[in-house]
Amino acid sequence: MKHSTNSILLIGLLLIFSVFIGCKNETKTTNINVPAAVENDTKKQGQAFLKDDEATPNVLDIAIGSKDHTTLVAAVQAASLENALVNAGPLMVFAPTNEAFSALPEGTVEHLLKPENKAALANILQYHVTPGKYSKDFLKKFKKLGQANNQNVSVEVKGDDVFIGGAKIIASVPAGNGIVHVVDKVILPPEE
Hints:
Strand content: 15-25%
Distance between the termini: 97 Å
Number of strands: 7
Largest sheet: 7 strands, mixed
InterPro entries: Adhesion/Biosynth-related, FAS1_dom_sf, FAS1_domain
Pfam families: Fasciclin
Shape: globular
CATH topology of the domain at 54-183: FAS1 domain
Protein name: Fasciclin domain-containing protein
Number of helices: 8
């Protein structure tokens, strides 16, 4: 009886060993289905075009999801700054509303959206972005902020209101990579 138990145990061990060896030698392949539209779209590359339904929306997602920021989103796209707004951050974006863009002199937005004005548009948009993730109340401690276009913007406090470059913060929305402060004016950088 002891001999047949040892034989069964030995056969069992050999089977386990052969399965283990077979698994180690197996070539693993992974099939990734890439939609044809993605394969053929060479212009839209980078983090901005990856979708993750489970993550907290980033600053770009928040702007895209807002009916009050369609002009801002069009400007970001025209300046090809989508990928900059989805990086790890943290970023503070001072996001002018459509009304704020409408208050600019007639034809300004259309002029800036032209391909030949891409650099000027990018400079203006980068003047709306600051490294960090500060609440409206915390911003009251600052006199100026260093912007993504390497210029400074003033911070003013009037009562409970905070103004960035003359634009009043009217709402704040936390994002996965920072915070979006909705402002009532387009903040124009000083001319050099």
